[in-house]
Amino acid sequence: MCTLKLEQQELASASWSSTMGSMATTSLLLFLATAVAAAAAAAPAPASSPFRTVYAFGDSFTDTGNTRSTTGPYSFGYVSSAPYGATFFHRSTNRYSDGRLVVDFLAQALALPSFLPPYLSLASGNATAGGVGVNFAVAGATAIEHDFFARNNLSIDITPQSIMTQLDWFDAHLRRTAAAAANASKVADALFWVGEIGANDYAYTVMAADTIRPKLIRTMAVQRVTTFIEALLARGAKYMIVQGLPLTGCLPLAMTLARAGDRDNVSCVASVNRQSYAHNRHLLAGLRRLRQKHPDAVIAYADYYSAHLAVMRSPARYGFTEPFRTCCGSGGGAYNFDLFATCGSPEVTTACAQPAKYVNWDGVHMTEAMYKVVAGMFFQGGDSYCRPAFSSLLARKAQGK
Fold it and tell me: Does the predicted TM-score (pTM) go above 0.85?
């Protein structure tokens, strides 16, 4: 999510080229050992994963490089600059975090040989898919089509791509890569990751709430997402994980803008969290209808809201000492967030010393540490946060069901 971009990465590839040219054998061995250790720190990979291809969709919580500073959403237009990417990649990879996202931990959990390359890098010839799949997610993307916002004079500084744009990109990718028959088989064997989408729809219309009610946005956004999922199913998709919205009221941006009295029992913005909760309930109802209509497909729901809530209730349990303050921000205070001086801007060129202690990275997006915790809940937490359980989905695929 963004508002309110990565050529295909192999683990630790950023350091490889320079190391080869200048360092001695002992240094090279040290580098390799470090890279192996970093990979081992990810979620344990199955000995033999039934999925070799993943297609991902969503917004900036999932985008691995389709957006850059020059194309990113307003106020978060410095994703190509340091300190983005500093924790894991040691440079910006156009991910809105200090390192890996949940979709990256998914790739590692499936033992894929690399992270998912962003679609626009493939389309421009700057990267190859390598058989692992493609990431179509775009920072700032909406569930509702851009024309809706334009008709309501809300299109300034709004990302023009919607979830249906990503469907068009997916179709274009399939047409370009292989024969139709081969594609049908590849689609049926792939795992589809539908990252959270819809938060931007609410954010873009917040200043027009008197004329465009949040309930209308919820109805339209959920309808667009379920239509998108059904379109994937019609193209042959059989295995899918759909994320709900997180606690958007716990993001420093929301907490900075909301009135002080609008708080819930985890000290976040109550009205915004209620909005996300209602959105997720309607999305779940839509997924239940799709499961009934497509009984041969496996459609899992990744409960981002509950996972996020668990962390906010007991941050220390998950290793966090700063559940509210922004790691890469400015302004100090309770949230260390200034909308006019955000991460990567000329005013904010450094981040906190220990990002792993922080939940929030730049005021809207999470740290790699938080994404890793959430990924663990989704992929190793049974059916508490992913229903049906991730292990059950893997078993169904292994059995060909």
Answer: yes
